[in-house]
Amino acid sequence: MKILFAAPDRDLLECYKKLLETDLGETVTAFDGTQVITLLSTESFDIALLDRNLPRVDHKTIIERANAKNVPVVVLTDGPAGLRNKADEPVPDGMLSYPFTFDSVKDAVRHTLESNIGKERKEAVKKDE
Predict the structure, then answer these.
(1) 48 pLDDT higher than 70
(2) Is 2 helix (H, G, I), strand (E, B) or coil?
(3) Which CATH architecture has domain 2-128?
């Protein structure tokens, strides 16, 4: 599995990179939206974990780019995880509120990937009909 983890806090990035690589697989980090856009256009990822407040590019643009590459996105937010997006905003595949534990991050990754596999299967069945 290849994970993109993006947050403006470099200490958080380094900590979670080590933890994610130990338990889930290769992890690439970015600390601003420009880096995320570049990585999404040059590499393939199974999932992206993105802080909602990344500098330089807003989270809506990043989610749209990730969606175009079929990369599921979990947004890390300082607001409530169940907060609904505005009608014109792209919807992430999951949300996780700060403060979170490493176990909750792993659970969010696994749940999001499982949900997307189910969604892909349903879309494939619809195409075959």
Answers:
(1) yes
(2) strand
(3) 3-Layer(aba) Sandwich (3.40)
